[in-house]
Amino acid sequence: MATFGARNLRQLRRIIGIPVWITVLSFVVRAFGWAGLVSVFVSFGFVKLPPQKVGAEHKHFRASLEYSQEATRILNRHLSAVAEGAASNISADEFELIVNTTRKALDEANQVSDEWLEKVHPELRQHYRDDFESGLHLQLTTYEEMDYGVPRVSDELARHAAEERWADWYNKNLIYLNRILHGSQ
């Protein structure tokens, strides 16, 4: 019984005359699509990512997401305490921390250029500005309205819709964004 191992593959390749790299590329494209081929090129360093990805704008982009997530964590922690009956009203200090953290997220977001966002992903600028950043604006508006009573329902619904659109787009593109933004650090 003959085995079909590496030696036989080399012989077959010589007979057919197809270089190994074409065979490998063909396999990767068939198995993983063109995105898989791009991933292979990026992973093995054949394609260098733009150097500005680790620069100031990359840091501002990441900081905006981190501040936004921190504000959400603080709010969720309070809401969990309310649900468990351990708290009723948010303290002034906690509320101020949420507002300031949201402002920091917006300040960081404003420091990221549209050009950089478009280099990272062709749709990132639109979603980052229209959904993420506008959601932060609306969130701050809601907080300001809370000082005068109950926030307007229309503002709250618009904020929620913007956050949902951002979360949906971000989650659909998370693997790509992580690879680009965090892959070679």
Nutshell version of this structure?
By secondary structure, the protein is mainly alpha-helical. Helix content is 77%, strand content 0%.
Largest sheet: number of strands, sense, barrel closure: none
Share of helix, binned: over 70%
Number of strands: 0
Would you list the SSEs in sequence order as H and E?
HHHHHHHH
Task: From the alpha carbons, calculate the radius of gyration and give it in angstroms.
Answer: 24 Å
Please describe what this structure looks like.
The chain is mainly alpha-helical. The protein has 2 domains: 6-43, no CATH class; 51-182. It has helices at residues 6-16, 20-43, 56-83, 92-110, 114-120, 124-147, 153-172, 174-182. Helix 3 (56-83) runs antiparallel to helix 4, helix 4 (92-110) packs antiparallel against helix 6 and helix 6 packs antiparallel against helix 7 (153-172). Residues 47-53 have low confidence and may be disordered.
